[in-house]
Amino acid sequence: MAPEGKGKAVGSVIIGSGKSLPERVVTNDELGQIVDTTDEWIVPRTGIHTRHIAVHETGTDLGAQASARALGLEAGGWLREKAIDPASIDMIICPTLTADAHFPSQAALIRERIGAVNAVCFDMSCACSGCVYGTSTADMLLAASAADIAAAKAAGRPPRPNPLRRILVVATERLSRLGDWNDRATCILFGDGAGAVVMEWRDDADGMLSSYMENTDDADHVLWCDSAFCDRPLPFDAVSDEAARAAAEAPCDPYMRMAGQAVFKFATSAMVRCIEEALSRAQLSPEDVALYVPHQANERIIRYAAKKMGMPSERFQVTIDHTGNVSGASALIALNEALVEGKLAVGDIALMAGFGGGLTAGACAFRI
User: Fold this and answer.
1) Catalytic-role residue among 94, 126, 298, 325
2) Which string of b and e fits 307-325 if b means at least 16 CB within 10 Å?
């Protein structure tokens, strides 16, 4: 259980973790053949040496494999105890910016692939904060369902329909589809992949200790990607034929755009602020956390947070060197690698932080 005065456990425990990375690895030298950049320029500014690009894999492929590993259906994942029956999953939450289809949801496509026949599904659009938004939402839904079950039992009534005991959170991204490969400011940063966790409500176990989420208006469009629809003209517009033609011919920018300096300034501030708030809400000190698992946007941002908090850099999990920025999946991938490598053990406290487009940010502290 949580130490006295060190935060209240609410029972949402991670019982499985998995990741999936595409087969194709792209080096900095390869990017230097496409845009004006070099390995010597990229590494000091980002910490990235390689990233995985989904040349053939779909978002469903990546998300399903990460989920299968989190369930123990494939090797390569981490399990608290034993393999998990996909039919026992009550809900799938999928944070993603790059779903394979507008509908069905990406979560529903993954559900079909892994055989989670009893799960209800939905996607979340919260960019690189998907790791925190997804797990925090799962935690709140599990807690609410557990509270209703307990209240129903006390009142002698049946619980509400669709009780939740297990939720799969799987973030899958193919940011290579949103990147402009002629824009060296963005194409060097991003990679593809998926990360997943299975969360289970347990009445007698530690789990999520605290959660904090926030949004900041992106009035200046410092991190932006237009909809594929843009301002496509409709046949019902009361405009002249000439105006309609002009609208139809207006350029639609399909690529993500980023004002690097502004985003860097937001990210450094947001990450430290959200970590401190999550620690405060859990009544934890920075030293109580065995490992910080941040969104992998830039190694300099991670180093800044460690220095600002007075913590050794070894207490921060870093995977950006070989994954690049995989948006909401990146921290879940990093968490999986930490668990598989034994950097986190059952009983340890971890803290996950994310920040990204929206502008979104958040952090959550949890006991493994």
Assistant:
1) 325
2) eebebeeebbbbbbebbbb
